[in-house]
């Protein structure tokens, strides 16, 4: 899991440097939209919407934007999105799993295929790479004067598997089935995660040299620039050497 935590930290730094807040907001609004259409516009009775709103706050989305997105999603002119996934291999044989929300599946398929082709990857069939990734609950918290020993014990009791501190960030991992109980425990403790959700974590990673890693990262950047792609997961090992080269 330390590799995942390190990659998350780098992505946060990179995201700030690249000023990609607009794209992040677009993806969050899509999640709010599909959650509200699916289960109603009240976060108190709609767990998926509650989580989307929580993540919006963690990304510093203004309250007005959040409320406007919920109101629009529950109105008669709400946009309709469908959920779809893609799997394949990118440069240097790195496995990639994509989660998408789209209002035009043909456009998304064409766009994803173009990115794979342009970067020397191969788009596979759905289900072909499922065995390489485990769905885990991942929570990222800001380490802001928390009593770490007590917090770790509380969360382990709630089902947390791993508790990792990296500077001012705490990463908590649990099995998919315990995501709800860990989230409830954080709410009971009055702690809001900066980011929380079920994520696909590689059960085996592939080490690359720095130059090969740069090729893969350019490929990942191209995928993340697509507004239809919500999440990009891969199995490239984030080594100390690669992390240092990206700083």
Structure description:
With 247 residues, the chain is of the alpha+beta class. It has a domain at 2-73: Orthogonal Bundle (Arc Repressor Mutant, subunit A), CATH 1.10.10.200. Helices cover 47% and strands 23% of the residues. It contains 9 helices and 8 strands. It has helices at residues 2-18, 21-39, 47-58, 63-73, 105-118, 148-158, 179-188, 210-224, 240-246, and strands at residues 82-89, 95-102, 122-123, 133-142, 160-166, 169-175, 195-202, 229-234. 33% of the residues are buried. The mean pLDDT is 89.
Features:
Arc Repressor Mutant, subunit A; 47% helix; alpha+beta; 247 residues; four-stranded antiparallel β-sheet
* Number of H- or I-type helical stretches: 9
Order of neighbouring strands in the sheet with most strands:
3-1-2-8
Outline, from the CA principal axes?
globular
Strand segment count: 8
Rg estimate, integer Å: 18 Å
Q: Helix- and strand-based class?
A: alpha+beta
Q: How would a textbook summarize the main sheet?
A: 4 strands, antiparallel
What is the typical, i.e. mean, pLDDT? 89
Portion in beta strands? 15-25%
Please mark out the parts with pLDDT under 50 across 5 or more consecutive residues, or reply none. none
SSE order, as H and E? HHHHEEHEEHEEHEHEH
Oligomeric status = single chain
Named CATH architecture of the domain at 2-73:
Orthogonal Bundle
- Can you say what the CATH homologous superfamily of the domain at 2-73 is? Integrase, N-terminal zinc-binding domain
**The CATH topology of the domain at 2-73, please?**
Arc Repressor Mutant, subunit A
Helix content: 40-55%
Distance between the termini: 20 Å
């Amino acid at each position: 899991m330390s590799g995942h935590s390190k990659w998350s930290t780098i992505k946060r730094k990179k995201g700030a440097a690249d000023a990609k807040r607009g794209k992040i907001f677009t993806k969050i609004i899509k999640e709010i939209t599909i959650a509200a259409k699916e289960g109603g516009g009240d976060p108190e009775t709609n767990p998926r919407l509650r989580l989307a709103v929580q993540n919006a706050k963690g990304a510093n989305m203004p309250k007005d934007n959040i409320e406007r997105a919920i109101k629009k999603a529950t109105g008669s002119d709400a946009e309709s999105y469908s959920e779809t996934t893609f799997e394949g291999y990118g440069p240097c044989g790195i496995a990639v799993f994509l989660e998408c929300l789209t209002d035009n599946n043909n456009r998304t398929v064409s766009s994803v295929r173009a990115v794979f082709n342009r970067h020397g990857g191969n788009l596979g069939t759905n289900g072909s790479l499922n065995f390489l990734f485990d769905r885990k609950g991942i929570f990222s918290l800001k380490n802001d004067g928390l009593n770490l020993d007590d917090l770790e014990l509380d969360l382990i009791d709630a089902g947390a598997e791993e508790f990792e501190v990296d500077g001012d960030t705490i990463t908590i991992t649990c099995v998919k089935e315990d995501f709800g109980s860990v989230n409830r425990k954080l709410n009971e403790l009055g702690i809001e995660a900066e980011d929380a959700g079920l994520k696909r974590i590689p059960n085996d990673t592939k080490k690359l040299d720095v130059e090969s890693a740069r090729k893969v990262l350019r490929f990942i950047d191209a995928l993340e620039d697509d507004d239809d792609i919500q999440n990009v997961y891969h199995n490239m090992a984030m080594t100390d050497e690669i992390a240092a080269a990206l700083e």
